[in-house]
Structure formats: C-alpha cells, structure tokens
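Consider the tokenized backbone below.
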C-alpha cells in the first residue's frame, strides 16, 4: 500500500492536524483489519508498519510534520499497549540524497528493526534459528558494542540461515516452487540483517534505504509507504521493490537481489529496474495526478550509479525529460501555492479524505499515459477548492 503523508499540510492548527492524523491512522488500521486480503488476516498479531520516504531535514516543514506524526503515534501506542493491540511502527527511510540518509539511521529506526525481527509471526518453528537471532539482537540493541562478541553472534546466525537457504534451494523445480514463500521470507531476513550489520555508507553509489524499505515491506505484511504527496518517492520505491520481486520469481534459484552484490551480479536487477522505470507502470500506480516518477521530483538522486548509467545508455532522453518535467511541475505547484488565499492557508479545515482501497479490487482501466504539465495544472486547479489533506492509493502486494 502507498499513500501521502498522514499529516495534512494545509492546516496550521496543531490540534486539528493531530485529529486528522488519528483519523487517517484509524482508517489505515481498519483497512488492514477488515480487508478481504487473506495475507493481512493471517498476520493479525503483527504490528502495523508505516515507512515514510520524506526527507527529515531539520528546520524544514517536512521535519515538523514528521515530529507531529511521531508524537501522535507514540501517544496512540501507549493506549494500544494497554489494550493488548498491535503497535504502530513509523520509520523514515529518506531516499532522495546520500546526505539525507544520515538522519534515517537513528535510534527509532534501530528499535523498529529489532521489533520487526522479534515479531513472532515472522519467525518459523525453527528453534535454532530463533535462538541465534535472539542472541545477535541482544548484542545489536546495545549502544556500546564489544565488536568481537557482536561479530561472532552475527556470523553464527548468518551462517545458519545461509545453510538453511542452501538446503531449501535443493530439489526439483516443483519442490522449489512449493518452498518459494519460505525461501522469500528467509532470503529477505538474511539480506535485511546484513544491511543492519554492515556499514551501508561504505558503498556510496547505491541507495541502502530503498533496500531497507523494500525488505521491511516483505517481512511485515501489514505495511505501507508514504511521502508528502504519495507520488514521486513512492513511485521510484515501487519500481525498485517490484524489480526485486520480479527477479526473485523469474530466476531458477529464487534469489532476491542483494544490496551488497558485486556490479556484475547486479546487471540483471539493474536491467529489470530500468525497464520498469521506463514503462512508468509503477509511477502510474503511485499517482494518477502527477505520474509518480515524473512528478515534482528529479528522482536521479534516488538511483544508483549503475542504474543511471544503464538508463542513459539505453534511453538518453528519459532522465533529461524527467528533470525538465519536474522543474516545470515544481514551478506550477509553487505558483498555485502562492495564489492560495491567506485565509485558506491558515484556517483550512477540510475533513480528511483518506480512504485506503485495494488496487487488486479496483484496477485501473487505462494504460499508464504521460500527462503533460499543462493538464496537471488544470486538474490541480479543479481540485484546489476541495483542499485535500491526504491522497491514498495502493499497490499490488506481489508481482509474482
């Protein structure tokens, strides 16, 4: 699932913003609890995971929204804990630029990772696996690490899960097909703890947060991603996640592309990603008003160097067009924002329009077409009277 920010940006009154956040959270929870999708019902005890792709740069409006959302969620979690209900996890995995990722590896993200890995619904009945994971997590949660002991506990767990995956991948194609869901879960778990364990910034030409967000979505079924408008960053994220799943389900060994893969080993994944990005299918699913990856943002900051090189080699005009369109859309957006009446800026109190719906139940009947900026402006002018607070949408949970 993907959606725009839970916090309405057109309302300056903090108390009203809090009420809107609570309403949006409840709608999101009701969707997961009452949907017909069995993958949600089978994980009723899991926490609800919300991954924000907004840039948490200090002293910016986005940072203020994030703090308010966290304040509301923390208060709500206290009530949910008293009533024995699953918690709401909220983390930020900014994907815009290398520097901004420094703000997304803090204590809250670490606590959320521990919560995800300790979740009973995630683990299978393998007691040895659970014991080795718990032993490593005990070291991982410490502020000051004794590196030798920490590395030893991690290697014990990582080597055990590697051997288990090796055995699961042995057998006939029919046997592998029957085991693919278990292989997917263990493969995602293996890659996820590897990102947490190693220094992701040692490889600066890739985006670790795209991998982290995608793997967390695979490990926690009741989850979704959000950004300010629910279009650009979620569009690039969907292209990345779908490419990972597509490669997993189409190769012989059922293997997810790993963040630490060597350049030669990444070629198949890079090709899948560029093909998906070029079709704009994920962008269309992310936002019909400003086609996702071709909205207000120049998304090359979110792409790895080999992905940018592949796109420039195969389709040189694509990234140039994207940058030009992003600049035009941003200019039009700022012009509309400047023309907004002052009274509307301060006292807008429109009711939340957050309605989570399943893409599988209401698929788009139209192909993913590029919408020129002039038409987007007319749509935005037409919609401006309603002053929407959040604009949700969903994406398929699997691309198998």
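A designed sequence for it:
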């Amino acid at each position: 699932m993907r959606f725009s920010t839970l916090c309405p940006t057109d309302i300056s009154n903090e108390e009203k913003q809090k009420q809107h956040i609570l309403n949006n959270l409840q709608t999101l929870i009701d969707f997961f609890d009452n949907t017909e999708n069995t993958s949600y019902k089978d994980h009723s005890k899991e926490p609800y995971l919300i991954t924000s792709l907004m840039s948490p740069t200090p002293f910016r409006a986005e940072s203020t929204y994030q703090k308010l959302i966290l304040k509301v969620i923390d208060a709500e979690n206290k009530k949910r804990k008293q009533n024995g209900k699953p918690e709401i996890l909220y983390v930020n995995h900014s994907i815009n630029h290398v520097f901004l990722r420094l703000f997304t590896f803090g204590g809250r993200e670490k606590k959320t990772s521990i919560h995800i890995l300790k979740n009973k619904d995630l683990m299978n009945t393998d007691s040895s696996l659970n014991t080795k994971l718990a032993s490593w997590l005990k070291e991982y949660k410490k502020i000051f690490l004794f590196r030798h002991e920490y590395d030893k506990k991690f290697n014990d767990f990582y080597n055990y899960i590697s051997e288990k995956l090796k055995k699961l991948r042995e057998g006939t194609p029919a046997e592998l097909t029957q085991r693919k869901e278990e292989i997917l879960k263990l493969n995602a778990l293996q890659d996820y703890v590897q990102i947490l364990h190693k220094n992701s910034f040692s490889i600066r030409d890739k985006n670790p947060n795209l991998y982290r967000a995608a793997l967390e979505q695979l490990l926690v079924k009741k989850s979704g991603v959000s950004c300010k408008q629910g279009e650009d960053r979620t569009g690039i994220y969907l292209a990345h996640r779908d490419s990972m799943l597509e490669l997993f389900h189409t190769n012989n060994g059922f293997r997810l592309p790993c963040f630490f893969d060597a350049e030669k080993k990444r070629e198949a994944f890079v090709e899948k990603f560029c093909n998906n990005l070029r079709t704009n299918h994920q962008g269309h699913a992310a936002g019909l008003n400003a086609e996702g990856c071709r909205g207000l943002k120049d998304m090359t900051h979110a792409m790895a160097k080999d992905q940018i090189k592949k796109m420039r080699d195969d389709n040189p005009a694509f990234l140039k067009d994207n940058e030009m369109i992003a600049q035009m859309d941003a200019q039009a957006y700022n012009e509309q924002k400047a023309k907004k009446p002052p009274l509307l800026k301060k006292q807008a109190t429109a009711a939340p329009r957050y309605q989570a719906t399943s893409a599988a139940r209401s698929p788009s009947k139209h192909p993913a077409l590029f919408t020129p900026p002039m038409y987007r402006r007319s749509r935005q002018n037409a919609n401006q009277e309603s002053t929407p607070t959040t604009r949700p949408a969903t994406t398929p949970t699997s691309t198998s």
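Residues 31 and 165 are 34 Å apart (CA to CA).
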